[in-house]
């Protein structure tokens, strides 16, 4: 099993927003032990307490949000999805923060599909459906800035990044846009 330290091509000089450590490996379905279900998984036995309700204005102290950003920026796409999903479940449906997180979760899933396609499957259909769905949700938020993220700029960077998918080509996973927060 490839550990994160064995993937220097994925190392980035990105600002960290949380103090939580990064897991020892970037989970890839079919290639690694499932992080939560497998006793050898990096998050096996971790606390699954539901996240308490929260407000977008709390983003500076919302560790699940900030850790999810760190995970996504470091190519831990499945893990970022999980971090944000806990927050997503804690807000009312069809609200701005709900759509915002759902969009980021879909984008993270699309990035995971790109990574998998580069390594094994060569099937980009998942990324081709998830990326536009995530971008549409993010655009529907209707805010230029939310939870420290310049959303318009980030959406534009993601659209450019995912552009090759429209021509059945894979974007370079190492060039995926960073999530940059006002800190």
UniProtKB/TrEMBL annotation:
Signal peptide: none
Feature: compositional bias, Basic and acidic residues: 1-15
Protein name (database record): DUF309 domain-containing protein
Pfam families (alphabetical): DUF309
InterPro entries registered for this protein in UniProt: DUF309, TTHA0068_sf
Region (Disordered): 1-56
Source organism of the structure: Marine Group III euryarchaeote CG-Bathy2
